């Protein structure tokens, strides 16, 4: 450990200096605004979202906008890193270390080796998307939209809050959880055959079928609610604590802790649970 040193290039040092300066500036501006804003106005819209009703179908535009932006970013990132060099640079080495860690975990968890690679792809994709979503939703100042009950936009506020994380929307988390459930059973049918897969619903005896069914339905519910509770609840907690400590420098610490540390942990947990659910169906 004594020989471990982290070095930055001149461009990276300039970027970090500019980023930290802007980060502190936004925090100071928020503190100044909170001083002038009554508590009733700050917490009056807490927890409310910009919801648009289209022929009875309710959607959250910010979830779609931010989620699409993250997906495009990951596609561009994958395209730029599609050609790996024999002697990796720091970016390639960083990505390889993450991918290698996930592949080792998946390889040890999945009993049928035919499904190691597809499970690895699913787990790493979920991890990268959820990580970016959690970080920008908990640590990156962004845009907040204030709308009325009809969905009409009343006000757009810059840098008064973090970006609305797609993982802070239960619909996003539930979609991913249901996707993992479907994938796990599709892999199980291909691995065991349809008859053996069907028998597993009645294991160890037919009386257990209702319990087995409830257990499978409970997986996506608990899978999605765990992530939603930590990210959605964390965002509200940061908002409240930031107001309570508005005369101090604490909001930056809250943003960093909930956005980066908790965000990374929850992304990893969600991905590992996906691996565990797929593994249990293949066992």
TrEMBL record:
Role noted for this protein: Key component of the proton channel; it plays a direct role in the translocation of protons across the membrane.
Keyword line: ATP synthesis, Cell inner membrane, Cell membrane, CF(0), Hydrogen ion transport, Ion transport, Membrane, Transmembrane, Transmembrane helix, Transport
InterPro entries tied to this protein: ATP_syn_F0_a_bact/chloroplast, ATP_synth_F0_asu, ATP_synth_F0_asu_AS, F0_ATP_A_sf
Assembly and oligomerization: F-type ATPases have 2 components, CF(1) - the catalytic core - and CF(0) - the membrane proton channel. CF(1) has five subunits: alpha(3), beta(3), gamma(1), delta(1), epsilon(1). CF(0) has three main subunits: a(1), b(2) and c(9-12). The alpha and beta chains form an alternating ring which encloses part of the gamma chain. CF(1) is attached to CF(0) by a central stalk formed by the gamma and epsilon chains, while a peripheral stalk is formed by the delta and b chains.
Keyword Membrane among record annotations: yes
Compartments in which it is found: Cell inner membrane; Cell membrane; Membrane
SUPFAM superfamilies to which the protein is assigned, alphabetical: F1F0 ATP synthase subunit A
Membrane-spanning ranges: 14-31, 62-81, 120-140, 173-189, 227-246, 252-278
Similarity-based family: Belongs to the ATPase A chain family.
Topology in membrane: Multi-pass membrane protein
Protein name (record): ATP synthase subunit a
Species classification: Bacteria, Thermotogati, Thermotogota, Thermotogae, Thermotogales
Keyword Cell membrane annotated: yes
Gene this protein is translated from: atpB
Main location: membrane
GO molecular function: proton-transporting ATP synthase activity, rotational mechanism
One BP annotation, GO: proton motive force-driven plasma membrane ATP synthesis
GO-annotated cellular components: plasma membrane; proton-transporting ATP synthase complex
